[in-house]
Design goal:
7-stranded mixed beta sheet, globular
C-alpha cells in the first residue's frame, strides 16, 4: 500500500468543488421543523421483536408531527428470517436488516436500538422463545434502554399472548411489560447504575393494536388517534413517509404503496396511568418540566417567529444565545439531547460544511491512511476554524472564512498495528446459543459501532466555540450512482479464506480444497502450518511481491492433523498470527458491510450414495444449496430463463428451484409447460418452498398438478419427531436408507410453508408436528408424471445443507435420484 508523507499539506484555494451528497445538512423547512422540535420535551419508546415489526406510519407521526423523541427498540436484528435479495443467512442477514432499519429511521425521523437477542428462527410460542433467549439478559437490555432513554410513553407492537402471531412477538411484549416496572426498581439490575443511569418509571405502557395478517385486534373503545396528517414542511403525509420507510426493508420484500387519506391507530392500555384522549395525557412535554427554563421557552418562541426561510443564517446569533441558556440548566437527559439538536441546527443555519474523507476503501493495521479535511462556509456568518483533532494529529488554526471559501487539508495518518480491525461489536465475542455476547455495557442497545476514526472540528461561530464530530469516510464517485460515502474499514495485513467452511468427508480421512491468502500491503511473506500440504508453496512459505495481493493454493490435510489453527499463517517479519477471514456484503441500498471470522472449517463424515451427477439449478431469492451439492460430487449448473428449453433441460438428472424462486421469477410460471415436458420425459423437478401461491397478482403454476401452500403450516421445532407415513416409498429407501437418525442435529426449523391442498397424484412420505399440534404431511410431496417426478420440498434444506447436516444431504440425494417411471 502506498505510503504517504507525515507532513501536513495545507492548501487554501477557492474552487468550484461541489459535493453531490451533503450528509446531515438541513434545508430551511427541515431547520424550521427542528426548531419546533426544540420546544418538545417528550419521548416515546416503541418495542417489538424484529426489523419490520415497527409501525412505519406511527413512527413518523410521532417524530415529525408530534415532534417527540421517538425510538424503536427491536429485540433482534432479524438474523433468523428469510432473505429475498440474496443468499445471506444468520448473522449476515442480521447485518443487512440492521442497516435497512437504519435507512428506514433516516426517513421517518426515529432512532434505532437493539438488544443482544439473536433471532434463532420462527417460534410459535413465547415459552419456546424464552427457552432459547436468556430472558434475564434480554430483560436487562430493555431495562437499560428504558433507563437510558427515559421515555414518557412505551408502546408495544404486540400483546403478550397468541394474538401476537408467534412466539418472538408475544415474548417481546412480555419482556416490555415486565421491564416497564423493573426499570423503576432500584433493587433490579443494579449493575447499570455505575454507568450513570438511574431507576426510571415511564408514565404508561400501551399496546398498539392492529388489523393485519387476518387478525383485527382494534376496537372503537380503545384510544384512537388519526395519524393521516399532511406535513407541509416535508410535502408528504405520514402514510407516504411510512411507506417509503417500510420499503427500505428490501431483504424482506416489504415494498409498500404511499398511503393517503384517513389513517387511524388504536391503543389498548396496559399499565401505568391510563390515557383517554392522547398518548401524552397528563405528561408535560414543554420546557416547564425543567426548572428555571422560562427564558428558554420565550427565546425559542421568538426565534421560531422570526425565522427567515431564505436567510436562516440570520437566526445564528439568537440560536447561540439559546445554546448558552440551555448549557446553564441543571444536568438532565433533556439538556444533552437539546444541546445536540441545537448544535445541528446552528451548523445548518451557518451554512457550515465540514467533512473528513479518504479515497481509500480500507486502511491496514501498521500502515497509513490519507485523510482529506474539507471545509466550506456557505453563509455570511462569522466563522473561524480553531482546531482539528484526530488520533495522532492535533492542530490549531486561526482561519477566518469568507463566503463560499474552501479549505482543503491533507494528513497521512499512521495506523497502529494493534488498531482493532473492523468488526460489528456484537460479533466480537463468541455467540452463546441465541444470545450475542457484549461485555461492554455501554455498547448494549447501539445499532452499530462508531466509525474507525472520528474527527473533532472546533469552530468559533459568531464568538462561541463549538465542537463538531465527523466520521472519517471513504468517498468515491460511481459512474452511475454519483458521489458516494462508505464507512472506512480497518483490515489486518492479510486474511485467510477457505473455499468451504463445512467439509464433507466422503471416503478417505483427508480433506481437499482451496485456500486463498490475501494481503493488503506489499512485500509480505506468510509462513503456513507445517501439516498443511499446499500446492506451489515453497517450504510452507507464501511470498507476496508488488501488486500480487492474493494467491489461491490447493491444499490437502488429514483429519488427524486438522486443528482449529490449521489454516492460520504467521507474518514472517513480525511473527504476528494471521487467522481471520474477510466477509463483505454489498448492496446498493445499504453501506458495504464488513466483518471477520476465524479461518477454520468443520468436518462432517458422510456415508452417501448419489445417482446422476448433473443438476440444473434455478436461483430464487438466494441460498447456498448449489455450493453444498457440489461438495458431494454433483455437477451443478445455474440455469436461467433463456436456458428453459426442452433440448437444454434433458441433460439434467434433476432441476432444482431455489427458495422462493416462483415468487421472484414470473417466467417460471409462464414457462411451466416446458418444465412439465421435462418431467414427462423422465426428469425430476424439485421445487423448494414457495412463500405464497401468487406472483404479481397471478396464480403460480408449478408442475403438472395443482397444489397450494400455507404460511401457517410449518414445523419450527428443529428436533420435532419425524414419522414415516410411507416407509416403503422409494424416497426413503434408495439409494440411501433414511432413518430417524437422519433428522438429528437439524438447525432452526424442520419445515416451512407446507402444502395445504393438493391434487390426488401427490404422495406424502413424512409426518411431523410441533408440540401440542396435529401432525402435518406437507413438508415433502412427490407426484409421478409421465416418466419423471415432481417434488415439493418445504423441508429447510437451504439451512441444513450449508451447515453440513449429513442426514439432510442423504435425503436430498434420494429426492434427486427419484427413478424414472
Amino acid at each position: 500500500m502506498k505510503k504517504y508523507s507525515l507532513n501536513l499539506i495545507l492548501i487554501l484555494v477557492i474552487t468550484n468543488i461541489s459535493l453531490a451528497q451533503q450528509p446531515n445538512f438541513y434545508t430551511s423547512s427541515e431547520i424550521y421543523l427542528q426548531l419546533k422540535k426544540l420546544k418538545v420535551l417528550g419521548s416515546v419508546l416503541y418495542i417489538a421483536a424484529h426489523p419490520d415489526d415497527e409501525n412505519n406510519t406511527l413512527l413518523p407521526y410521532l417524530a415529525k408531527e408530534k415532534l417527540y423523541r421517538t425510538a424503536y427498540l427491536s429485540l433482534t436484528r432479524g438474523d433468523g428470517g428469510q432473505n429475498l435479495i440474496g443468499s445471506e443467512q444468520g448473522v449476515e442477514l442480521g447485518l443487512i436488516r440492521t442497516q435497512e432499519l437504519l435507512a428506514a429511521r433516516k426517513i421517518d425521523g426515529a432512532e434505532q436500538y437493539f438488544t443482544r437477542a439473536y433471532e434463532f428462527g420462527y417460534s410459535k410460542t413465547s415459552e419456546e422463545t424464552l427457552n432459547f433467549w436468556d430472558k434475564e439478559k434480554v430483560m436487562s437490555d430493555v431495562v437499560w434502554m428504558i433507563r437510558k432513554l427515559q421515555p414518557d410513553v412505551i408502546i408495544t407492537r404486540f400483546p403478550p399472548d397468541s394474538r401476537a402471531g408467534h412466539g418472538h412477538h408475544s415474548a417481546s411484549a412480555i419482556i416490555a411489560n415486565e421491564a416497564f416496572f423493573l426499570a423503576a426498581d432500584s433493587t433490579k439490575f443494579t449493575e447499570h447504575f455505575k454507568y450513570g443511569v438511574k431507576p426510571y418509571q415511564a408514565k404508561r405502557i400501551l399496546w398498539n393494536t392492529f388489523n393485519f395478517g387476518g387478525s383485527n385486534t382494534t376496537s372503537e373503545n380503545q384510544l384512537k388517534i388519526d395519524v393521516s396528517g399532511f406535513n407541509s414542511l416535508i410535502g408528504k403525509s405520514y402514510g407516504e413517509i411510512g411507506a417509503e420507510a417500510r420499503t427500505m426493508h428490501k431483504s424482506q420484500g416489504e415494498g409498500r404503496p404511499r398511503r393517503r387519506g384517513p389513517l387511524f391507530e388504536y391503543f389498548s392500555h396496559t399499565s401505568g396511568v391510563k390515557a383517554s384522549k392522547d398518548l401524552f395525557d397528563d405528561v408535560d412535554f414543554s420546557w416547564n418540566r425543567i426548572n428555571n427554563s422560562q427564558e428558554i421557552e420565550k427565546l425559542l418562541s421568538e426565534i421560531i417567529s422570526n425565522f427567515n426561510f431564505e436567510k436562516p443564517e440570520k437566526s445564528v446569533s439568537k440560536l447561540i444565545e439559546l445554546y448558552k441558556k440551555i448549557e446553564a440548566i441543571e444536568p438532565c437527559i433533556w439538556k444533552n439531547q437539546k444541546l445536540q439538536e441545537l448544535k445541528n441546527i446552528i451548523e445548518s443555519c451557518a451554512g457550515l460544511f465540514a467533512e473528513a474523507s479518504t479515497n481509500q476503501e480500507y486502511a491496514v493495521q501498521g500502515d497509513s491512511v490519507k485523510i482529506n479535511f474539507f471545509i466550506n462556509n456557505r453563509k455570511e456568518v462569522n466563522t473561524i476554524l480553531k482546531r482539528i483533532q484526530i488520533e495522532h494529529f492535533d492542530s490549531s488554526f486561526q482561519n477566518v472564512f469568507k463566503l463560499n471559501q474552501n479549505l482543503n487539508l491533507s494528513k497521512s495518518l499512521p495506523i497502529n498495528v494493534n488498531k482493532e480491525h473492523t468488526q460489528p461489536y456484537w460479533l466480537k465475542e463468541k455467540q452463546e446459543q441465541s444470545m450475542f455476547v457484549v461485555s461492554n455495557q455501554q455498547l448494549i442497545g447501539e445499532a452499530e459501532n462508531e466509525t474507525a476514526y472520528q474527527v473533532k472540528f472546533t469552530f468559533n461561530i459568531d464568538g462561541y466555540d463549538f465542537d463538531f464530530i465527523k466520521p472519517v469516510q471513504y468517498k468515491y464517485v460511481d459512474p452511475v450512482r454519483g458521489e458516494l460515502y462508505q464507512p472506512l474499514q480497518i483490515f489486518p495485513v492479510a486474511t485467510v479464506e477457505i473455499d468451504d467452511e463445512n467439509k464433507m468427508i466422503l471416503a478417505k480421512n483427508e480433506i481437499n480444497g482451496v485456500v486463498k491468502y490475501s494481503t493488503y500491503k506489499k512485500e509480505l511473506t506468510l509462513i503456513t502450518n507445517e501439516y498443511l500440504k499446499l500446492s506451489n508453496a515453497n517450504n510452507n512459505k507464501v511470498v507476496f511481491l508488488n501488486d500480487n495481493n492474493f494467491q489461491e493454493l490447493s491444499f490437502k490435510i488429514s483429519t488427524e492433523s486438522l486443528s482449529e489453527n490449521s489454516f492460520n499463517v504467521i507474518e514472517e517479519a513480525t511473527k504476528k498470527t494471521i487467522d481471520k477471514t474477510l466477509h463483505q456484503i454489498k448492496y446498493d441500498h445499504i453501506p458495504t458491510l464488513t466483518y471477520f471470522t476465524n479461518a477454520t472449517i468443520k468436518t462432517h463424515k458422510l456415508n452417501i450414495k448419489i445417482v446422476g451427477k448433473k443438476i440444473g439449478y434455478i436461483i430464487g431469492a438466494g441460498d447456498k444449496v448449489p455450493e453444498s451439492l457440489k461438495q458431494i460430487g454433483y455437477d451443478v449448473e445455474i440455469i436461467t430463463d433463456k436456458d428453459l428449453t426442452a433440448n437444454k433441460l434433458k441433460q439434467y438428472q434433476a432441476i432444482i428451484t431455489g427458495i422462493r424462486a416462483y415468487n421472484v421469477n414470473e417466467w417460471l410460471t409462464t414457462k411451466n409447460e416446458i418444465l412439465n415436458e421435462y418431467i414427462f420425459n423422465g426428469g425430476n423437478l424439485i421445487v423448494q418452498y414457495l412463500k405464497s401461491n401468487s406472483i404479481i397478482g397471478k396464480k403460480i403454476q408449478s408442475g403438472p398438478f395443482p397444489f397450494s401452500i400455507s404460511a401457517q403450516l410449518r414445523v419450527t421445532e428443529e428436533n420435532a419427531v419425524v414419522n414415516f407415513a410411507l416407509p416403503n416409498h422409494v424416497v426413503l429407501n434408495s439409494p440411501n436408507k433414511i432413518t430417524n437418525s437422519d433428522f438429528e442435529n437439524w438447525v432452526q426449523e424442520r419445515s416451512t410453508y407446507q402444502i395445504e391442498k393438493s391434487d390426488s397424484n401427490f404422495e406424502f412420505p413424512l409426518l411431523m408436528n410441533d408440540k401440542n399440534e396435529k401432525q402435518s404431511n406437507g413438508s415433502l410431496a412427490i407426484a409421478k408424471y409421465g416418466k419423471g417426478n415432481i417434488a415439493y420440498l418445504s423441508l429447510a434444506m437451504f439451512r441444513q445443507l450449508p451447515t453440513g447436516n449429513a442426514g439432510a444431504y442423504r435425503l436430498m440425494a434420494n429426492i434427486i435420484a427419484l427413478p424414472k417411471n
